[in-house]
Write a structure and sequence with these properties.
By secondary structure, the chain is mainly alpha-helical. The protein is built from 11 helices and no strands.
């Protein structure tokens, strides 16, 4: 049996085409009105909300969850494990806030010490940046210079600070100079190592392009190598920023004469068994380190963030 489908198919084609034309933008309806196409689904708004929710989760909720877990463990250890006589070493968190922060007479003393610690921190960090970048540039000029100086930079990083306190106090006293030197010693190596790595990691093709124009050594360094080394350099600056706070506090801890900083207060509160003020000072010092680290991260995004994007897995 033969089925004739030619006429039906021929009739169906104009109907489908007409239906398609009716849904097309600007199509004219049978009564002469212009058909308005349906609005597309708000996919862009949905993707923006998804990105915002992911950024909120990664940058705020997850760190806050870890912080809440840390506080819970702190309460568990201090409240259930330690006796009242032992609790001076790890007081309850609300006691730390009440005695060390909410008590203005105590917190005012901490703020005055913080001001001096900030002075030592930024002075030592500034000296470390200047000396570290210059040392890395010098070592980059010749391999024999790098082989001569880089091992001593490593030795300077690993030498115990306690072994140098006697020498530093003998030559420079117990005040600002000795504390700044300790800060420089601790924060110097990350700047040298990361800057040197950045200078040595310039793309070979860019070097060959510069060679075609026969630039001088200083021109190549200033216009190619230093700009290319900025991402690695700022990584070293962020690491050194946190270490500079540690260096300032360590210097104040060992050199107790002169103006009292946070490190001096840590030593005093530890000897007096004032656990609440000891931990409050520790929290303030940690907050200072976080602020300095975040500042250099922000500065890095302002300087190199527009043209440098790190590779992500």
């Amino acid at each position: 049996m033969t089925v004739d489908v030619g006429s039906d198919a021929t009739a169906a084609v104009p109907a489908v085409a007409a239906a398609a034309d009716e849904t097309a933008p600007g199509a004219t309806a049978p009564d002469g009105a212009v058909a308005v196409p349906a609005a597309p689904a708000p996919a862009t708004a949905g993707r923006s909300w998804t990105r915002f929710r992911g950024a909120l989760l990664n940058k705020f909720l997850l760190p806050l969850s870890v912080f809440a877990l840390f506080i819970g463990v702190w309460y568990l250890i201090s409240g259930l494990t330690l006796t009242r006589q032992q609790r001076f070493m790890l007081p309850l968190p609300h006691d730390v806030v009440r005695v060390g922060i909410l008590d203005w007479s105590n917190f005012k003393v901490t703020l005055e010490a913080l001001r001096y610690t900030v002075t030592v921190t930024f002075l030592g960090l500034a000296i470390s940046i200047v000396l570290g970048v210059l040392a890395a540039m010098l070592m980059h000029q010749a391999k024999w210079i790098e082989n001569s100086l880089y091992p001593w930079a490593i030795v300077l990083q690993t030498v115990p600070i306690l072994a140098l306190t006697g020498v530093l106090s003998f030559f420079f006293g117990f005040a600002l100079t000795s504390r700044t030197i300790v800060c420089v010693i601790i924060s110097f190596f990350p700047i040298v190592s990361n800057t040197l790595f950045g200078l040595q990691s310039v793309d070979r093709g860019m070097h060959e392009l510069f060679t075609l124009h026969r630039p001088g050594r200083l021109t190549r360094l200033w216009k190619l190598e230093l700009p290319a080394a900025l991402p690695a350099m700022f990584t070293g600056l962020r690491n050194a920023a946190g270490l500079s706070v540690i260096g300032a506090i360590v210097g104040e801890f060992f050199f107790k004469q002169g103006n009292a900083g946070l490190g001096t207060h840590l030593s005093v509160f530890q000897s007096r068994l004032e656990g609440e003020r000891l931990w409050a000072t520790t929290l303030v010092a940690s907050l200072l380190g976080i602020i300095v680290f975040v500042f250099f991260g922000w500065l890095s995004r302002r300087v190199v963030g527009r043209w440098y994007q790190p590779k992500r897995g």
